[in-house]
Write a structure and sequence with these properties.
Blueprint lengths: L1 H11 L7 H18 L11 E8 L5 E6 L2 E7 L5 E6 L5 E9 L2 E9 L4 E7 L3 H4 L1 E5 L1 H24 L4 H25 L4 H25 L5 H7 L22 H21 L11 H14 L3 H18 L6 H11 L3 H16 L10 E3 L5 E3 L10 E6 L4 H17 L4 E6 L5 H10 L7 E4 L2 H7 L8 E4 L5 E6 L6 H9 L2
Parallel strand pairs: 1-7, 11-12, 12-13
Antiparallel strand pairs: 1-4, 2-3, 2-5, 5-6, 7-8, 9-10, 9-13, 11-14, 14-15
């Protein structure tokens, strides 16, 4: 049965498994299943399960398994890039497995219940798209992963639907929801899934639907957010009475988490509009962000759900608002509400670092490597007595790597007196960094790599990745937190050059 499930899944994804290359891959997968079946202790009892897999193009030999944000074990690949893990005293539910894929860490969730012996196979070059489960417990997970991929494909359609009037938009998303419910019923009729599976599948369907309605005021471009919110039918958000704010069963499940994030953005903005003169969404507004924190704190009691949302909201405000004078009030609100000491320490450090980077201060001492392998001080790179622009990139975001280097090259032509310095922020060695530069045929004259990434990220408060710093000819900070792609970036450069 597992073979037919696999074949059906691959057909749905438009993959011809009977091509010569994929026949080879199928043979490898079948050999993995044989490997599992031959294990001496592979029979499962009521409180055990097996989880294993094969990684094609692995970047290291580890798979990290966790549940509810807590690490369970680090699973090592054997010489054939496979692993098998016996789970005793199993707590049924959603588990997360994480591995290095491409230039970043990728993760996905798997539903494991007692008696399961779930195997997966994936290629790190096409992480989600190549993921296929086999074995006992595979069908339910293949169904869930297809729902996840279908949701990704629906995003473009939803953007188009969001330009429709509210009732027409509702009709479209209601139809999409009904189609998913129909697919789930067909699956249930053909199989005998557990109540737990059905509950998780319904969360996927319902909270994806809820999310589409929460996003509508932000995605519709016809009016300001305030006018759109005020024009919505009174029953547009009736679904909110069914929201479970402390749904620990699915606390880390992507549809649920992203719904909560947008849900609190929307409710905070609606409330903010009622007691302010604003009519458009302004992420820089301290009042809006404080309202968002208050709502999260008032409606969620479960720390494992509340704390990540508090952290995300606080860091988004810090990222968007460059006025360090606005940080203290929000910081105190965050510290009073979060119960996660690591989060508190992290946010406090980021804010303290940003205060030290305020305009007029000198750039701190940060050790970097140049492409000759020499260790130098960041304050001294790019020549003394010349203004500088520091921009950052990571191996995890190669599209951004190309975009920011292209933009810097264009700006250098227009502002030849400014040095544009690119700094890699990845936790990699010099050889890996040089290989990336060589692969993309990058001019290495102004490329640097942090010696101590963690320390540098903390002292320079590098969040988010597209952050840029402008430094004058004397080494003083002009702007510690700007963006090369913002509409007023060149005005900032001209303002510095005309001082």
């Amino acid at each position: 049965m597992a073979t037919f499930t696999f074949v059906d899944t691959m057909k749905r994804r438009g993959i011809n498994i009977f091509s010569s290359g994929n026949l080879c891959h199928l043979a490898i997968l079948m050999s993995l299943m044989t490997f599992v079946a031959c294990e001496k202790d592979i029979s499962t009892t009521t409180d055990t399960a097996y989880f294993g897999g094969e990684i094609i193009n692995p970047k290291n030999d580890r798979v990290i398994l966790s549940k509810s944000g807590k690490g369970i074990d680090t699973l090592r690949l054997d010489k054939n890039n496979r692993f098998i893990y016996k789970m005793n005293d199993l707590q049924p539910g959603l588990y997360t497995f994480e591995l290095v894929a491409g230039d970043a860490n990728e993760l996905q969730m798997v539903l494991i219940e007692p008696g399961d012996s779930i195997m997966f196979r994936l290629n790190t070059l096409e992480f989600d798209e190549s993921l296929v489960y086999t074995g006992k417990g595979a069908k339910k997970n293949n169904f869930l992963i297809e729902m996840f991929l279908d949701g990704e494909n629906e995003e473009r359609a939803l953007l188009g639907f969001s330009q429709l009037p509210p009732r027409d938009f509702e009709e479209k998303v209601d139809s999409m929801r009904k189609d998913k419910i129909k697919k789930l019923k067909q699956f249930d009729d053909s199989n005998t899934p557990s109540e737990l599976f059905d509950e998780i599948a319904k969360v996927n369907i319902n909270y994806a639907y809820y999310l589409s309605k929460e996003v509508y005021p932000f995605a519709n471009y016809s009016k300001s957010e305030k006018k759109i919110i005020e024009s919505l039918p009174k029953d547009f958000y009736d679904f909110r009475k069914d929201v479970n704010y402390n749904y620990t069963l699915v606390e880390g499940y992507f549809p649920y988490y992203y719904f909560l994030k947008r849900h609190f953005e929307n409710m905070a903005l609606t409330k903010h509009f009622k007691h302010s003169k604003d009519s458009v969404f302004n992420r820089k507004c301290a009042g809006y962000s404080t309202t968002r924190l208050n709502l999260i704190d008032s409606l969620i009691q479960e720390p494992s759900i509340k704390d990540p949302l508090l952290l995300r909201a606080t860091m988004e405000f810090i990222s968007n608002n460059k006025n360090v004078g606005d940080y203290d009030e929000l910081l105190q609100s965050f510290l009073a509400k979060s119960s996660n000491e690591d989060h508190k320490h992290y946010v406090s450090n980021v804010i303290n670092s940003l205060k030290e980077l305020k305009p007029g201060n000198y750039l701190p001492n940060i050790a970097v490597y140049n492409t000759k392998g020499e260790e130098v001080d960041l304050k001294n790179v790019g020549g003394n007595g010349q203004p500088k622009v520091l921009y950052f990139w990571s191996n995890a975001y190669m599209n951004y790597f190309q975009d920011c280097h292209k933009k810097a090259k264009e700006l250098k032509v227009k502002y030849p007196e400014v040095n544009f310095l690119a700094i890699n922020t990845s936790f990699h060695d010099v050889n890996t960094w040089e290989q990336v530069l060589k692969k993309y045929k990058t001019n290495t004259d102004n490329e640097y790599l942090f010696k101590n990434v963690a320390q540098a990220q903390k002292r320079l408060a590098i969040y988010p990745m597209n952050k840029v710093m402008i430094i004058d000819k004397d080494g003083k900070i002009i702007n510690p937190h700007t963006n090369m792609f913002s509409y007023d970036f060149e005005e900032q450069l001209l303002g510095m050059l005309n001082q």
